[in-house]
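Please fill in the sequence for the structure shown.

STRUCTURE ENCODING:
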């Protein structure tokens, strides 16, 4: 049942070219400019006229929500808030009929996310679910939704569900931007092509596995790690850190790279590995400066870079090369090496990768 892999987590990481393609299939056809999300059809008016989008979720799904904030704001110019469901539900939030709520959940059973939905619903908001498990509680509670179609995710650490969530949210953002007129047709078509190319690029990114094993060997005994990224790659830094801590029990923190100088920089010494997501995008030069700041303090730098990179390569201790993508879709590819890295480190440390201590696949208690 693990399809020849040692663990479900590894199998699920390797399934991503297919799970993302499954998610896009029947919905996106770049050549004909077709983009259809069945679940949105009856609610497109509400979506288009929403004054605000509120995304609510927990854990990895919340990280997918953060990526979506950048996508919706860039392409559709709608204000977005991303809320931990557990905070939103207890805060007496300002929410009403003009708000479009997107609840993201792999399991569809997360208690806090369900409660956040009930609360927003009682205030008259429209609720849209992005879930993986068909027929679970959240899709039954929301007004509408789109499944991620990633297939069953057994490993407790979420991997393929995350990339499928971002894929659905990216389609929603492109659709919304096009309908609202904030995304011109030529750019929209170009982005559809870019998104359609992602499964192939994830396939390429998986080929970094051997290089990553080597890096894992070198850093498996560290006690702390820092993950830094900017823009679309900031949520990837958070997700990379979460993956490492949940399965390897190494203390890891993710930060926007620019926040480093406001505190975490104090932690940097020759013992501290700093994982940068430094792909070629609009904040690349800024990230290069942040890498220089770490090297000046003798930190170890491991960077995920775009193929052909030279600047970061000259500075970093190790680089992991991934194919070039439009920056908006970089998280889908850049997260893959970080998933593999956490996996290998956890295996080398003898951890129970598929069932890490203290964690459950569905968090049905608050
Ligand atoms: C991380 C992880 C958790 C879940 C979180 C939300 O690998 O598994 O952080 O992402 O518990 O779960 P869902 O998406 O099922 O609502």
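FILLED IN BY: designer on duty
SEQUENCE:
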């Amino acid at each position: 049942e693990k399809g020849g892999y040692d663990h479900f987590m590894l199998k699920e990481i390797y399934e991503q070219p297919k799970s993302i393609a499954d998610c896009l299939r029947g919905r996106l056809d770049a050549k004909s400019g077709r983009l259809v999300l069945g679940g949105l059809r009856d609610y497109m008016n509400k979506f288009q006229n929403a004054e605000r989008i509120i995304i609510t979720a927990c854990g990895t799904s919340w990280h997918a929500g953060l990526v979506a904030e950048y996508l919706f704001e860039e392409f559709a110019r709608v204000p977005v808030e991303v809320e931990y469901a557990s905070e939103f539900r207890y805060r007496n939030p300002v929410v009403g009929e003009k708000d479009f709520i997107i609840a993201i959940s792999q399991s569809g059973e997360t208690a806090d996310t369900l409660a956040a939905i009930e609360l927003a619903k009682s205030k008259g908001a429209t609720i849209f679910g992005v879930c993986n498990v068909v027929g679970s509680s959240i899709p039954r509670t929301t007004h509408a939704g789109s499944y991620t179609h990633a297939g069953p995710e057994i490993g407790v650490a979420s991997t393929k569900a995350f990339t499928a969530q971002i894929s659905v949210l990216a389609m929603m953002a492109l659709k919304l931007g096009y309908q609202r007129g904030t995304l011109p047709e030529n750019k929209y078509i170009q982005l559809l092509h870019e998104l359609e190319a992602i499964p192939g690029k994830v396939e390429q990114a998986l080929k970094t596995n051997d290089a990553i094993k080597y890096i894992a060997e070198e850093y498996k005994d560290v006690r702390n790690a820092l993950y830094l990224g900017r823009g679309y790659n900031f949520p990837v830094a958070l997700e990379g850190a979460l993956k490492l801590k949940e399965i390897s029990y190494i203390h890891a923190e993710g930060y926007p790279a620019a926040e480093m100088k406001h505190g975490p920089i104090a932690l940097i010494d020759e013992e501290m590995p700093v994982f940068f997501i430094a792909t070629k995008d609009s904040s690349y030069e800024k990230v290069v400066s942040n890498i220089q700041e770490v090297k000046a303090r003798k930190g170890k730098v491991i960077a995920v870079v775009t193929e052909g990179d030279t600047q970061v390569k000259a500075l970093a201790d190790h680089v992991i090369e991934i194919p070039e993508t439009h920056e908006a879709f970089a998280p889908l590819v850049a997260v893959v090496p970080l998933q593999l890295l956490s996996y290998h480190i956890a295996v080398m440390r003898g951890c129970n990768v598929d069932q890490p201590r203290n964690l459950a696949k569905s968090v049905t208690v608050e």
